[in-house]
Amino acid sequence: MTLTLTRPDLIRSGNFINGQWQNSKKNEQYPVSNPANGLVFAQAANSTADDAKLAIEAAYVAFEDWRNLPAKARSQCLIRWHKLILDNSEDLARIMSFEQGKPLAEARGEVAYGASYVDWFASEALRTYGDIIPEAVQGKKLMVVKEPVGVVAAITPWNFPLAMIARKIAPALAAGCTVVAKPAEDTPLTALALVVLAEEAGIPAGVLNIITSSRDRVSDVVGVWLTDSRVRKITFTGSTAVGKILARESASTLKHLSLELGGNAPFIVFEDADLDAAVEGLMAAKFRNGGQTCVCPNRIYVHDSVYDAFADKLTERVSSLKVGPWDRDDSQIGPMINDRAIDKIQQHVQDALQHGAKLLTGGERIQNAIATGPNYFAPTVLIDANHNMQLAHDETFGPVAPLFRFRSEQEVIEAANNTPFGLAGYFYSNDIKRVWRVSNKMQTGIVGINEGAIASETAPFGGVKESGYGREGSRYGLDDYMDTKYLCQGNL
Ligand code: NAD
């Protein structure tokens, strides 16, 4: 398995600070490996707090000029960046597949999806409108203007190495903010390649800075950003546990926070649903990215009267999924990101079986002539799942579909909402009254109604409860990077 690129210069091993590629101050690196075979194939800068400080300094100095550029000029930078991402999409997809493991077709899809945020916010940059408020007292003019919040720190996970960082950087730059970014330690290279293209697009020095670090350095590096008062916003996608640390530790300087955290998505199949459509929706929502997606259904509730029929149809589809490395055209599920991830999946399946679940397909690691590495897990369907199982409470983050049985709408709504999380929820029904009733009752930031593919750059993505706050994409996504300033003008 080799990584061949049209532009090998997209692979970087340093930090990018103030327009310069540079080694970490300590001149240290950490290894990046390929999840398909566990082999180290690149190095990335192992930064420290000193590098994190340099990045803030650069972003802080660059902020004044960047925010004062006409919106059209900022938009044009994003338009050029978008074009370069599309022009280099095959290389970006290959780098992503190599470090993250996802099949190439999915990586290509992610490049297009991530690029769509850059395109969207290039346009939204032109629409940061304020308001004129009708005067309450004669002679006073009341106006509202939108201003960029300032330096933004962006911290992203490994599951979508391009889309997650693009959908933070693009709105920040569109709003007139400058950025310091840290991608996940497992997947730094896609983000670094994206920054190579941002530099080529003419985004000025200091406006976009990126540093990398190994997992054991991450608290030191991000810790600097959390406590420095020049950083005005933290935008984070990752686990709820880390999100809570960031909320706590940034409190001393009261920063804006956008937290896109973990989910525990319910997927409900009512008795009046189109079962074939529900199976297809579940396949798209559950098995994309090998089930390593925060909006993946984690608990699939199926009405008693259609339970067996749905389980049969689903099992037929799931057992035909092809598991293999990114570079095979027929691979649909790649390796899991690392051994910690696969241990958790295995643990959830074992626990479910001990608590009464039955296995219809999958349920174990795969190692064969095609899936040769240690991190492959067979796509799995479990029936007779119940709420005593770990997988009912904790995201499995893998290709495991547990089916719970329900008998009434009220019962299933209570069960679906009985979680601290509230990112996405899905249901399938052909009864229009039920559609409105259930949509209203779902305690999630996103509801898929007879639809499994919900993400779009034009729509607000984000959660409620312990899935976090803030929205990405759409006009709401730009608002999160702006302060509202009220101007009150008396008689001149
Ligand atoms: P993670 O929280 O462990 O890591 C995310 C990022 O935080 C990484 O860059 C990591 O280096 C950094 N980080 C880790 N510990 C930190 C610390 N103590 N201080 C500061 N930064 C720290 O999550 P992960 O394992 O990379 O990703 C999986 C999780 O992310 C899942 O729970 C998933 O649901 C969630 N996720 C959410 C969304 C969403 O949009 N809501 C999208 C993707 C993933």
From TrEMBL:
It comes from the Bacteria. The active site is at E260. GO terms for biological process: gamma-aminobutyric acid catabolic process. Residues 21-486 form the Aldehyde dehydrogenase domain. It holds the Pfam family Aldedh. Keywords: Oxidoreductase. InterPro entries: Ald_DH/histidinol_DH, Ald_DH_C, Ald_DH_CS_CYS, Ald_DH_CS_GLU, Ald_DH_N, Aldehyde_DH_dom, Aldehyde_DH_Superfamily, Succ_semiAld_DH. One of its GO terms (molecular function) is succinate-semialdehyde dehydrogenase (NAD+) activity. Belongs to the aldehyde dehydrogenase family. PANTHER family: SUCCINATE-SEMIALDEHYDE DEHYDROGENASE, MITOCHONDRIAL. This is Succinate semialdehyde dehydrogenase. The lineage of its organism: Bacteria, Pseudomonadati, Pseudomonadota, Gammaproteobacteria, Oceanospirillales.
